[in-house]
Amino acid sequence: MLKKLKNKKVKRAVSNIVFAAVVVVLIIIAAVGFALYATKPTAPPTTMTSTVTSTVTSTLPPSTVTSTVTSTSTSTSTVTTTTTQVVTRPITVNSSGAFYNGKVITFMYTAQFMCTPNATVFFPNAVNQSKVAMGCEVGAGNISAFPKGAAPVFVLVPAFAGLSIFGVPQLGATPQGFPTFTYNNQTYVILTQCGAALTETACPDHMSLIYSPAFTVVEQYLGIKNGVFGLPEGVLPTPAHEHLVTFTTNQSIPWYIVVVLVFDPNIFPNPITGQCQAIVPSNLTNPTANCLNNITALENAMTTYDSAVAVANAKNPIWLALGKPGLEVVVPGITSPSELFSATNSNMILYFSDPPVYPYPI
């Protein structure tokens, strides 16, 4: 399917303020309605014929004659009706949801993203890729190059949903940009705090396109040698994802991204409730024990093998191309939980505050 889309052009646009409306479609939509009034004839002109009878008396010598005169008049009238149409549009806001200590909190974005150092520092042969992706990459990073005081934000990518994470309907994504996952002939829509880039549910102030050597591995596994969607090899839209942090603050600070590939659908949290659902059979006593709404769960998931992973990803080209890892999550470039706060696997920075308040209307 990817080959059929190789020549599809992707709009490359990055908003300086709001890249796209943050909309949680199918659950909670913060919306305003406005009425569009259209006045139009709803029935054809009608013709009404009336007959008027008058009596005229004429006096003629030497006799009086009374005559009756009948006249006919025609009038045309137009019936006009007013139709009111209500159109609902989402409110555009610079915010999204996130997880902290088992709770759902709010991200308030305050500035455009930054990618430092440029991707070519880590991948000198990816000059064209870096140019298209505005210098943003996943695969390497240097914490010392980040702004002072930058903290980690763990970006949870539902990799078990396969190529639908990139927001393309032909690859299984919903029209809104959410990925889907099919197991036992049932398809689940995987709701995320941020839909894929270049879709209506993408988060504001996020990068649209990213270069990653891991993307190249997947493309080559599928026999694709020159990239997809008209993009250079290894460049794809930012996938749908959720956020996990380890503290809250009302002050905007820089946050550096650590990408986490989630291969166990049983531990991927619902963005509204923060809770997990056991979808795939598991050998674990509690399949949702490592629900990724807190940092301890992430640390445990990095070392937890689960039979659900192989079952859920049997036909997933991402999982297959990356060597069929049996762990619940994979943090590319970081193998030990002890490294989660001393290393990173990207050069991407976001700016936001994360007050401990629920982000959606109740």
Give the helix/strand layout.
Blueprint: E1 31-41, E2 46-60, E3 63-77, E4 80-90, E5 95-100, E6 103-115, H1 119-122, H2 127-132, E7 151-157, E8 180-183, E9 186-189, E10 209-211, H3 213-221, E11 235-237, E12 242-244, E13 253-262, H4 295-301, H5 307-312, H6 317-321, E14 329-330, E15 348-353
Parallel strand pairs: 7-13
Antiparallel strand pairs: 1-4, 2-3, 5-6, 6-15, 7-12, 8-9, 10-11, 13-14, 13-15
Q: Which geometry do the CA atoms define? A: globular
Overall mean pLDDT score? 83
User: The biggest beta sheet, please?
Assistant: 7 strands, mixed
Oligomer: single chain
Strand tally: 15
* Beta fraction: 25-35%
How helical, in percent, are the residues? 10-25%
How many DSSP H or I helices? Answer: 6
Element-level helix/strand string: EEEEEEHHEEEEHEEEHHHEE
Secondary-structure class? mainly beta
Q: How many domains, in number, for the residues? A: 1
Rg over CA atoms: 31 Å
What is the CA-CA span between the terminal residues?
A: 40 Å
Low-confidence stretches: 1-60, 82-92
